[in-house]
Amino acid sequence: MTRPKTLSDEHVLKIAHQLMHEHGPEALTFARLAKACGLSPATLVQRFESKARLKQSTLHYAWDRLDEKTAQVADNTPKSVDGAIEFLMALSRDYGGIESYADGLLVLREDLRDPTLRARGVIWKAKLSNVLESCFEGVLNAPAGVGLLMASQWQGSLLWWSFDPQGELESFVETSLKRFVSVVVTSTA
C-alpha cells in the first residue's frame, strides 16, 4: 500500500480522535497515528511538533465538532420545553454503550487537565445553558438559570446511567429529562 502524499490536518486529527477513543489518550503516539493514517511519523512531527501538541490539537478538533453539532441541533430545535428535551436527546445519540461512554470519560480527563480545553468546556456550558433557557421562555415563573439546571440534570443522568447501564441510554436520559421538566414546570406554574 502506497502512502498518501498529503492528508489535511483535519483528516489526520479525525483519525487521531478515533484512536484516542479506541485505545485511550496515552496510546495516541506519532507511530500509531502514522500507521493509521499512512503518513510518516516524521511528517506528523513536523505538523504537530510534540505528542502533547498532537493530543491538544486532537481535543480541540473534537471540541470543534461538538460546537458544530451543538449549533446545528440548536438551529433545528423548537423553542419549547419539549424542544429542550429534543435538543439534549440529539446530543446524547453519539454516546453509545457503556464501553464507549467510559472511553469518553478518559478523553474528558484530558480536557480537565488542560486549561485551554477546560475553557472550551466553560464556553460550551454557556451555549447549552442559553439554548435551554430560550426553550423555557414564556414558561410562567421558570426559575432563573433553568438552562444550566437542565444541562446539569442531563449530564448527571448520563453519569448515573453509566453506573448501572440497564436499558438504552437514550431511554434513561429521556425519562430523567421529562421528570426534571415535570418538576420544574409544575413547581413554577
UniProtKB/TrEMBL annotation:
Q: Where is the HTH tetR-type domain?
A: 6-66
Q: Which Gene Ontology molecular function entries are recorded, alphabetically?
A: DNA binding
Q: What protein name is recorded for this chain?
A: TetR family transcriptional regulator
DNA-binding: is it a keyword of this entry? yes
Task: Note the superkingdom of the native organism.
Answer: Bacteria
Keywords assigned by UniProt, alphabetized: DNA-binding
Checking Gene3D superfamilies in the record gives: Tetracycline Repressor, domain 2
Looking at the UniProt feature table, which residue ranges are given for the DNA-binding region? 29-48
User: One of this protein's Pfam families, by short name?
Assistant: TetR_N
PROSITE patterns tied to this protein: HTH_TETR_2 (PS50977)
